[in-house]
Amino acid sequence: MPSPSILPLADASRLAEPSASAVRKALFWDRIARKYAADPIADVAGYEATLRRVQALLCSHQDVLEIGCGTGSTALRLAPSTRRLLATDVSAGMIAIAREKLAAQPVPQLRFEVADADAPVFGQGAYDVALAFNLLHLVSDLDHALELAVQALRPGGLLISKTPCIAEMNPLIPYLALPLMRAIGKAPHVLCLNEARLTSAIARQGMEIVSVERHGTRGKDIRVFIMARKPA
Ligand SMILES: C[S@@+](CC[C@H](N)C(=O)[O-])C[C@H]1O[C@@H](n2cnc3c(N)ncnc32)[C@H](O)[C@@H]1O
Q1: pTM for this structure?
Q2: Mean pLDDT for the chain?
Q3: Rounded Cα–Cα distance for residues 6 and 50 (Å)
Q4: Ligand 1 pocket, 94 CB below 6 A?
Q5: Which of 43, 59, 147, 192 is the most exposed place for a label (fewest CB within 10 A)?
């Protein structure tokens, strides 16, 4: 079977060959895509709070990019509030499921494409908002992925991220459980972030941090919601 094509985000008509590293990264997610789609959301109230927060920031004249969209559930909910939402993921398996959902529930503003957040394929200055949910802890090089996401934004554009900060968990999880699970193929490579490291990395790209929030409703919430603005 041919490997999936990675599409430049601003011009999806120009096909680029996937890099070997993008294909490697996609393997884990391709394998678990159906299970990921079937798994229930752990904290529905927290998820809905985030959706409401983001919906309130979107409007019908905005072009929006989502990176690491998974099976597209969030994009399907948010796209009707935008002019156009391009939702991307490195995993062709995830994107295939997202497209099935879109076919069952058409949203004219929404398109799904395979693309690697770590690779220089973003359109420059083409988007008003860049979304990254449960993604930034998974990229190979955080500074580079953020640089690309920021480049994709127009001046004044918003980067909105909600990311698990693994360093805020019991240290046995990042330093023992996750490496063991990774060794047997049950977990991907994960960056050990905390709120300070993540906000600093976003600020290093010249972004103004607008808000840092937690929306979780069940126990300790390690998923930091960060909104940052590209200078106008
Ligand atoms: C934990 S899932 C989150 C999916 C979705 N955003 C959500 O919140 O349910 C992480 C997703 O990021 C994707 N991903 C991982 N590394 C990526 C990369 N370098 N570029 C783009 N997507 C990536 C995976 O394929 C997977 O779909």
Answers
A1: 0.93
A2: 91
A3: 29
A4: yes
A5: 59
